[in-house]
Design a protein that fits this description.
With 70 residues, the chain is of the alpha+beta class. It is built from 2 helices and 2 strands, in the order αββα. A two-stranded antiparallel ribbon has the order 1-2. The longest helix is centred in the last third of the chain and has 13 residues. The chain is flat, with a radius of gyration of 15 Å. It starts with a helix and ends with a helix.
């Protein structure tokens, strides 16, 4: 959340989704590798039975509804 809020304060515009790549080192420290404003949707992970929408797509729809005050 801190990364997303930092980007929001520094970069103009609205981002419905961010791809945030993190790494964990052997001492347990978290490192920010990169942030993508248009993360890849090329994920071939099969959906679980009964789920018709990937979680990332669901969050995108939720954000759009929030931004539209719907």
């Amino acid at each position: 959340m801190q990364i997303a809020k930092g980007i929001e304060t520094q970069v103009p515009g609205h981002f419905a989704e961010l791809g945030i790549d993190l790494a964990l080192d052997t001492r347990g420290r978290v490192w920010l590798l990169e942030v993508n404003s248009k993360p890849s949707k090329d994920d071939n992970t099969p959906l679980q039975a009964g789920k018709k929408m990937r979680p990332s797509v669901k969050r995108l729809v939720q954000y759009a509804r929030f931004a539209a005050k719907f």
